[in-house]
Amino acid sequence: MPDSHDQLAKNKMPYSMTFYQDQAGASGHTSTPLPAAHRLLYVRHGAVIVNGMELQADGFAYFSDALTLEGAADWSEVWRWELAAPNAASVSLQGTDILTLPKLARAITTLALEPGTDWLFRLDSVISVAGRITPRHQHHGPGIRCLYQGTFNVQDASHVTANQGPGDAWWESGVDTVVAWHSTQMTAIFIRALVVPMELKGEMSNIWLDGSPASTSNWRLFIDQPITL
Questions:
Q1: On the chain, which terminus has fewer CB atoms closer than 10 Å, C or N?
Q2: Over the stretch 144-154, which tens digit does the pLDDT of each residue have?
Q3: What fold is seen in the domain 118-228?
Q4: CB distance 21 to 100 below 8 Å
Q5: 6: part of which helix (H) or strand (E)?
Q6: Residue 62's closest CA among 193, 157, 151?
Q7: Beta-carbon neighbour count of residue 52 at 10 Å?
Q8: Beta strands in 51-176, from DSSP E residues, in sequence order
Q9: CATH of domain 16-107
């Protein structure tokens, strides 16, 4: 029988966000489903069939059930974000002509993600024109970004993430103040998964610190999925 410390740990279990890049060839298919989890998917290239639903390039979806995937193009890449316990093992696709690259995992320490609480699991995109410098800001929740196009640099008080290229991923806690800058030659685009409070539904996550006017012109919201942990 678990003692009180075990029960307390279970009731207050923190969550981690993990980011994967999955690849599937034309004949690729999973031999066993991935276990049920809160998942966001974005098709970076090609086309796939997920749980019987076809997703083309730039397609996206949320899934919470067990997941199967098969290729529907010569070569496809899917970006996948999941919520799990910080000590959970990586969840890779198993099957023929299929591959998973675990890219990044971070424990969420800035939100009280306790069992029974409600949150938004968000997937969105940000487009920054060539030469833009994003002023000091924070976010209403943490998340993992992955660069789609261009190059990207971001800095907080103690750490610089520099010269990110397409396919590179990075974490922002939300509470750390950051500034970001991009190539002067090409627009930068990144895809991002966040956990944010329910009251933020349909609204940007940014908290501008220098009186910068809020703008949604470079923001594209894909999914605001209510979840219960």
A1: N
A2: 999 999 998 88
A3: Jelly Rolls (2.60.120)
A4: yes
A5: helix 4-11
A6: 193
A7: 7
A8: 53-56, 60-63, 69-71, 75-84, 95-107, 118-128, 133-139, 143-149, 152-155, 160-164, 169-172
A9: 2.60.120.10
184, 191 Cβ separation under 8 angstroms: no
CB 66 within 8 Å of CB 34: yes
Query: pLDDT for 9-48, tens place per residue?
Result: 445 668 999 999 999 999 999 999 999 999 999 999 999 9
Both tokens assigned to 103: 């890219």
Other CB atoms within 10 Å distance of the CB of residue 35: 12
Q: Does pTM top 0.85 for this prediction? A: yes
Q: Are 116 and 190 in contact (CB under 8 A)?
A: no
The answer to whether 16-107 and 118-228 have equal CATH topology is yes
Number of C-alpha atoms within 13 angstroms, CB side, residue 7? 4
* Residues facing 64 on adjacent strands: none
Structure tokens at 22: 């999955």
**Helix H or strand E segment including 225:** strand 219-228
Q: Among positive and negative, which fits the CA dihedral 112, 203, 221, 169?
A: negative
